[in-house]
Design goal:
It is a single chain. By secondary structure, the chain is of the alpha+beta class. The chain has 3 helices and 20 strands. It has helices at residues 2-17, 143-160, 295-299, and strands spanning 55-58, 65-69, 74-79, 82-84, 91-95, 103-110, 115-121, 129-131, 180-183, 188-190, 202-206, 212-214, 219-224, 234-241, 244-251, 253-254, 261-262, 267-270, 282-288, 291-293. Strands 9, 11, 13, 14, 15, 17, 19 and 20 form an 8-stranded antiparallel β-sheet that branches. Strand 6 (103-110) and strand 7 form a beta hairpin. The N and C termini lie far apart (115 Å). The structure holds zinc ion (ZN).
Length: 306
């Protein structure tokens, strides 16, 4: 009777254990029952993939432009805290102003909420500074300048705010005209009493009036002035997408219209000597958002003329 009862209890215990014992194991290999006192941690929502990293092409230097590629799974990229647009293939544009530095920060926020941050060291440059200690900074202001300039600035700013979706930012840039570089990007004059003039915002190419001017990359015309501006003269601005745009100044004639799509290398204007100049040349400025960029770093060394 006692023996029979013990057998029944043993069978009941085995049945209870039945679900956690692997079938087919010899009795000695059966694991002891485990008493779970704390609940298991929740299963992670995403598999633990290693964090990717950014990659960059371009010049990590003052006045330089970078094409970045965001880590896989990036939802959002910010540069110094400001969001920048990212193309479907993960590529984006950032640039360093002439006076940027010494570091900048790029952060990607991934779909799973994690972030990847890179601190970029911006190499400083020595700029061409000329001291003109006998000249005053401002020439005598003309009433005409005071009257007309605000509307011109408004037009330029409105052009820069346009987002055309142009894809030229993906291309290698070319020089809009070939010739001797007469004034470098970033050059600055210091006037009488040590007053600094604003630095040169682009690169000057010494070419005679009437020289064909070509689009440096694909884009959309965002400004084609129908009269000379006080400083820029006849001004043509081309959006290359992602906040990057070109300004071509002092033109004698513009042959494209606002809103027109242009191809890299397409004839867009003829050079001239309009606006505030001392002689005929082409001035080319490149900007990303508010950062002024050195065209030499983007288009490379000036090719030799044929
Ligand atoms: Zn210039």
């Amino acid at each position: 009777m006692r023996r029979a009862r013990r057998w029944v209890l043993g069978l009941a215990a085995m049945t209870a254990l039945g679900s956690c014992v692997e079938p087919g194991l010899p009795p000695a290999a059966r694991p002891a029952p485990v008493v779970v006192t704390t609940p298991p941690p929740p299963a992670p929502r995403m598999p633990a993939v290693p964090l990717g990293d950014f990659s960059f092409q371009g010049s990590m230097i003052q006045g330089g432009l970078l094409i970045g590629t965001a880590p896989p799974g990036t939802r959002r990229v910010s540069f110094n805290g400001d969001e920048v647009p990212v193309a479907p293939d993960g590529r984006f544009v950032i640039a360093f102003d002439r006076d940027a530095g010494p570091v900048a920060t790029v952060t990607a926020t991934l779909d799973d909420g994690r972030t990847v941050t890179r601190t970029l060291t911006i190499n400083p440059r020595a700029w061409n500074i000329s001291r003109l200690s006998t000249l005053p900074k401002y020439p005598v202001p003309m009433p005409e300048f005071e009257k007309l300039r605000p509307a011109e600035i408004d037009q330029i700013n409105a052009a820069r705010r346009q987002d055309t979706g142009a894809m030229g930012w993906r291309q290698p840039f070319m020089w809009p005209a070939t010739g001797r570089i007469s004034t470098l990007f970033g050059s600055q004059r210091i006037y009488r009493n040590g007053e600094a003039g604003s630095y040169h915002s682009g690169t000057d190419v010494a070419v005679p009036t009437g020289t064909p001017v070509l689009a440096p990359a694909d884009g959309v015309v965002i400004l084609a002035s129908d009269h000379p501006f006080l400083l820029e003269g006849n001004l043509l601005m081309i959006d290359h997408g992602m906040g990057l745009n070109s300004a071509l100044m002092h033109l004698s004639r513009i042959v494209v219209m606002p809103g027109q799509a242009v191809k890299r290398g397409q004839l867009v204007a003829y050079s001239g000597a309009t606006g505030r100049v001392t002689g005929a040349h082409l001035h080319w400025s490149l900007r990303w958002r508010n950062a002024k960029i050195d065209p030499l770093l983007v288009a490379g060394a000036m090719p030799a003329r044929e």
